[in-house]
Amino acid sequence: MMEFKRHLQSVVLITVFLAAFAWVVLRPHEPLYQGRPLRAWLEMAPQNGWYIDPGSARQVQFGNRDLATSLLPIVVQLAGTRRTVPRMILGDMARDEGFSFLHLPPQNGKYELATWVCRVLGPEARSAVPGLVPLLRDKDPWVRMEAARCLAAIGPTAEEAVPALITAWAQATNQNLWVDNNVRAFVAEALGEMGPAAQAALPYLQAETNELFQLMVLKIKGESFAPFLDRLKDTSDLRRWSRTASVVGRLGTNASAAVPLFLSVLSQTNRTIPQSNLTIYEQTLEALGQIHSQPELCVPAILTLLGSSNLNVRAKSLWALRGFGPAAKPAVPQLVRALQDHDHWFKREATNTLREIDPEAAALAGINTNQP
Amino acid sequence: MTCLPIVERELRVASRRWAIYWVRSASGLVAIVLGVFVYLANQPAPAYALGHDLFAALVVLCLLYCLFYGVRSTADCLSGEKREGTLGLLFLTDLKGYDVVLGKMAGSSLAGFYGLLATFPVLAVPLLLGGTTQGEFWREALVLTNTFLLSLSLGIFVSSISRRPRRAMAATFGLMLIFTGLLPTAAGIILALAPTHRSRWAEMLLMPCPFYSLNQAYDFAYRRGMHRFWLSMAILHGLTWLFVLLASWCVRHAWQDKPTENLVQGWRAVWHRWTYGNPQQRQALRTRLLELNPVCWLAGRSRWGPVAVWSVLGISAAFWGWGCVAAGNDWYNEGIYFPTVILLNSVLKLWVASVAGRQFGQDRKDGALELVLGTSLSVKAILRGQLLALARQFLGPLIVIAGLHGIFLAASLQRESFHANPLNPVLWMGGLVVLVSDVVALSWVGMWTALLAKNPNRVTSMTVWRLLAAPWLFLVAFFVVAVNTFPSGSDPHWEFYVGSWFAVSVLTDLGYTLGAWWHLHHDFRQLALQRYALSTPLFRFKRWFKR
After folding, report:
1. What's the pTM?
2. Is A105 an interface residue toward B (CB < 8 Å)?
3. CA torsion, ordered B236, B241, B246, B251, to nearest 10 deg
4. Using H for helix, E for strand and C for coil, what is the string for A194-253?
5. A101 and B424: CB-CB below 8 Å?
6. What is the residue-averaged pLDDT of chain B?
7. What pLDDT does B104 receive?
8. Lowest CB count within 10 Å: A66, B52, B392, B445, which one?
9. Distance from CA of A77 to the nearest CA of B (A)
């Protein structure tokens, strides 16, 4: 009888343990929407258009308001992903086709996804702010940067994050470390997006001579960017010009007035810029992609550099075209030709660009449009 | 006057052993076979690339041989003499500590050293292919010889301070791991944390690692800084002499039986009480198990056995819990499931292999098995008792691990992609069958091997070799041949690999289990008492054949 009792106890204990373990492994690990985990929806979203107008993107991707708001905890989770060595190894393995049977979670693009959702949802992502604020104090600088980027994407409705942003700025004091410099840059951008609500940050930003911080001061004060755009006319100091171009590009569509200046650089008529200085071209292309205004003028100008012998210039041209999204459709024939490029990496980038600009043309070119 | 008389005597004895001839022939043959497989696995490639890969692969394998030979041959040579009480007799004469240590080293390493020498001609083949230089060949040969000596000296040092065979083996292995694993890991951590990824300290930590010497012997590293190679060699060689000197000193002072100190005695009593329980608990367990089977009580008296297995499972569960919390949703994928199950399966199988034959092997050596056979217990009852003891220790954990297979199978079926590619469900089902068949086979073969093995300490390694290592080596060789014989462009699919693994594993288990079952049921008495049998050549042949 005792032996039977002992065996029964063991059977019950083992059964309970296995049942608990089965629950841990087999339960849905995140809320489902229409039978799919939310992360699956999220990962599909950018494939249908990273660069389309945020307003319409919201309609297309997050027509259901419940879906949009239920995504926010995942956004906070994505933004809070630390860049650890095991995660980087995991990410490399996840990209390797040989390990596809392990279904490893991709580690790349998590930050971009988080920012994208915040940008698309804009003020509607406000409920993510309480989750993002503690991330500004995270020990991983990449997490701090991403939190600032997400807050910048949410915009002025995230004003409750201003004190935390100022603290994050004040703590990134080592200007010799690029990490701290980057944290400060992202935090400054977020403060700039908050507008007048970030008045308390002005003393910190005004003490800096960096172009980006000066621009953010203008944004917070609500003053015109015109003096900044004027600086682009002065090409005597190329390094300074390059830094200004980089900052102006961050203004996005707000800097559409600078497009003719950038186009003049690409048209190679401005003899003051040495032809050999390819960094200028690269910077200009990047800024045009970020501004993505006046595609009828910009796309043909960018296309002239898509055939450059320099790989970096070719790549920057692709990324600039991606910035215009479907508005860059006139570039499709040349993009199809770019698929034959001898550089494997460039070919992959061209494939992704074509897929995003014109999925139908990509399908005709034999590209699988369902897989990134 | 003879210089180093024990060395001379041991070498004379060793040179007459049949193993001297077999080991060197076998080493040469194994090196040739491995070389052929490396050659086939790297086809098609230019001759110099083949030569380089062949050389690199053979050198690493030889280094592993050198590292493990010391553990195997010297770790128990002095401790064995201590247990048998023969070491003290040597010190009644004028012999010094170094006479005994060097003599034992020479005697126990001769076969292994000839085995190493036999691989050198095969190592030189890449010289003809053009993949390596003469300098590299001779430097690597020097590294291998140096490592072999270091491994021997480590083993003999640990043996000089040990008494129990398992502890001696484990300590030698641990000490070896410090040089080959711990120091390089520490160096790696320092390099990773250093802002410039360079550190003098890290380099110093790498110096006593044989793998570092091996790497520095290649031309690309040697030309960059030959001092690193020679410094590493000098440190390895210095360590060899240091361990020999330490062993020579220790062996003179550690062979006597000393009265146990009160503190140690106290700890032993606590350990004994914890392992077997207090008198009331022992009585209760005896009553309970004797009702089932007396051999079950004999083999399952220790409470530590089942507790240890459950503890390992508990620690694994705690680690899993930590992973779930730390990694969140990223934890739930086959990248975690497969390593979890592989690790648990390996631990369980190795544990079963080590326990299955331990009782019979020890009883046979102590003569206790004769006493058991002298009772009214039938062979069937003895075997049943041993199996019951194994089940008492491992059945619960086996069910839990099998249950994990089932849960992970269900998780793989949750994925939509399994319709298109059922690799994972097939792997889980196959893994479950192989786990159960391996555990059953290890139990039977472990008992059988314990009755055959000359040395009870080698029962586990022999069992593991037969059922776990040999099939995998065969599979790897089979895959290499198969991949090279398939027409190019039509590489075998996963069904081929998984099917081969499943078939080889299950057939090996089945064949060995049936053989062990048959011999245990029909030849148990003969096998158990064979140490008293006349050791005729015919009997030896029969025994070899049964092995």
Report:
1. 0.71
2. yes
3. 120
4. HHHHHHHHHHHHHCCCCHHHHHHHHHHHCCCCHHHHHHHHCCCCHHHHHHHHHHHHCCHH
5. yes
6. 85
7. 85
8. A66
9. 9
The Cα A348–Cα A354 span in angstroms is: 10
**Is residue A320 within 8 Å of A295, Cβ to Cβ?**
no
In the predicted model, what is the mean pLDDT of residues B301-315?
Answer: 89
Residues near B183 by beta carbon (within 8 Å), at least 6 away in sequence:
B205, B206, B208, B209
Contacts of A123 (CB under 8 A, 6+ apart): A154, A155, A156, A157
> Chain B residues with CB inside 8 Å of A39's CB?
329
The token duo for A31 is 């809320």
Taking a C-beta distance cutoff of 8 angstroms, is the pair B256, B90 a contact?
no
B91 or B187: which leads in pLDDT: B187
Instruction: Report the distance separating Cα B148 and Cα B112, nearest Å.
Output: 9
| Chain B residues within 8 Å of chain A (Cβ atoms) | 192, 288, 317, 324, 328-330, 332-335, 338, 396, 399-400, 403-404, 407-408, 410-411, 414-415, 417, 421, 423-424
Nearest to B14 by CA among B77, B65, B56: B77
Min Cα–Cα distance to chain A from B36, Å: 27
Mean pLDDT of the region B209-223: 90
Which of A6, A101, A108 best tests the B interface by mutation, with the highest count of B CBs <10 A?
A101
Give the model's confidence band at B340: pLDDT under 50 very low, under 70 low, under 90 confident, else very high. very high
Alpha helices in B415-469 (DSSP H): 423-452, 459-464
Q: What is the ipTM of this complex?
A: 0.72
Mean pLDDT for B369-375 is: 85
Q: How far apart are CA A339 and CA A351, in angstroms?
A: 6
Which residues in chain B are contacts of A24 at CB distance < 8 A? Answer: 324
Going by C-alpha positions, the residue among A27, A51, A29, A52 that lies closest to residue A40 is A29
Could A18 and B400 be called an inter-chain contact, meaning their C-beta atoms sit closer than 8 Å?
A: yes
Of B461, B441, B447, B462, give the one whose Cα is nearest residue B514.
B441
Task: Give A65 or B280, the one with higher predicted confidence.
Answer: B280
Whole-angstrom Cα distance, residue A142 to residue A87? 13
Mean pLDDT of B186-192: 83
With b for 16 or more beta-carbon neighbours within 10 A and e for fewer, the B238-252 pattern comes to ebbeebbebbbebbb
Q: Shortest CA distance to B471 belongs to which of B499, B519, B507?
A: B507
pLDDT tens-place string over residues A198-238: 888 888 888 887 888 888 888 888 887 777 777 887 777 77
Token pair belonging to B114: 């000839």
Chain B closest CA to A159's CA: distance in Å? 29
With contacts defined as CB-CB under 8 Å, which chain B residues touch A29? 329, 332
pLDDT band, very low/low/confident/very high, at A165 (cuts 50, 70, 90):
very high
Instruction: State the sign of the Cα–Cα–Cα–Cα dihedral B261, B266, B267, B271.
Output: positive
Q: Is the pLDDT of residue B508 over 80?
A: yes
- Write the residue in A3, A10, A104 that is nearest to B333 by C-beta: A104
B324, B328, B400 member nearest A77 (Cβ): B328
Other Cβ atoms within 10 Å of B478 Cβ, number: 14
> Would the CB atoms of B288 and A3 count as touching at under 8 Å?
yes
Q: Give the range among A259-273, B98-112, B147-161, B262-276 with minimum mean pLDDT.
A: A259-273
Angle between helix B379-414 and helix B494-528 axes, rounded to 10 deg: 170
Residues of chain B found within 8 Å of residue A10, distances taken between Cβ atoms = 396
Bridge partners, A32 (sequence order)? A37
State the pLDDT at residue B389: 92
> Who has greater pLDDT, A56 or B542?
B542
A171's tokens:
């703590």
Backbone Cα Rg of chain B: 26
The reported pLDDT for the residue numbered B2 is: 65
DSSP secondary structure code for residue A174 in this structure: -
